Amino acid sequence: MTYTFDIDLAAKYGVNEAIMLNNFIYWIAKNEANGKHFYDGRYWTYNSVAAFVKLFPFWSNKQIRTIIASLERQGVLIKGNYNEQKYDRTCWYAFTDGFAESIFQNGKIDLPKTANGISEKGEPIPDNKNHIEIPYNNTDSSGASADAPASRRKKFSFRDSIISDGASADQADRLLAIRKQKRLTNSEAAYSRLHESIQTICNAQGVTTAEVVAFMLKQGWGAIRPDWSGVEGIKAATPRSRKVRSLQDIMANDTKLF
Questions:
Q1: Average pLDDT along the chain
Q2: Are 141 and 3 in contact (CB under 8 A)?
């Protein structure tokens, strides 16, 4: 399979981000052309992290989440949830007003004629203009080795994933114990939902994953949502680190004590 990206978008947002954007640009433009998935004044597309992994086998689900988070942080993407079932946590994506205007209204992107009949669940995306083609390889944009395709990656681990996001091993073990007690599943989909909630809280409050997990453990929670009562106070509840003074410093500055 051949993947493409827009040169200008790669220069502005990053190569990985530009490759992912090629997917979003195509599907959002297609939905707009077909009058589909229009909610709250925007056209949307949707996909799960698992589907993105199949579409981009040279990225792990963590890398995909990082790329999408980067696009959100750079003011390109926003997330939503317009699933018919409340338990369905598949993410929906739309462009911010500024990015949509620069891409679509200025005529930068044309919807390919081959759009019809292609599924919105992770099939290859058509070619686009002003691009560079890149064949599959096993390196990311920095030249570091990327994860192997899904069929060759090691089995998913909830514990390893939460640790790689910044929690300590002890926190991970305690969180898993709570989840077991509450009979919560530790599937990849369940972790993806937890990860997205934690990242939303981290971005909103300026806290770390470890601090959010510590708050969860204190509350006895096996999961968390940004809209839950008490969640908004994580930063205030996080104790400030204290500077440890050495004996020499005390002797030098607090002479009245001796």
A1: 76
A2: no
Q: In angstroms, rounded to a whole number, what is the distance separating the alpha carbons of residues 225 and 97? A: 26
Q: What is the residue-wise DSSP string for 75-123?
A: TSEEEE---SSTT---EEEEE-HHHHIIIIITT-----GGGTT--TTTP
Residue written as tokens 């959010």? Answer: 212
How far, in Å, CA of 114 to CA of 125, rounded? 10
What strands, in cross-sheet order, belong to the sheet with 45-47?
45-47, 91-95, 77-80
Q: How far apart are CA 227 and CA 257, in angstroms?
A: 51
CB 38 within 8 A of CB 24: no
Given a cut of 80, whether residue 16 has pLDDT beyond it is: yes
What's the rounded Cα separation, in Å, for the pair 94 and 191?
Answer: 23
What is the predicted pLDDT for the residue at 104? 64
Q: How far apart are CA 109 and CA 172, in angstroms?
A: 44
- For every residue of 194-237, DSSP letters joined together read HHHHHHHHHHHHT--HHHHHHHHHHHT-S---TTSTTGGGHHHH
Q: Which amino acid is at 134?
A: I
Q: How far is CA 152 from CA 58, 140, 186, in A?
A: 11, 17, 21
Total residues found in the chain within this entry: 258
Kindly list the distances between the CA atom of residue 101 and the CA atoms of 45, 98, 189, in Å, as whole numbers in the listed order.
17, 5, 33
> Looking at residue 170, what is its pLDDT?
93
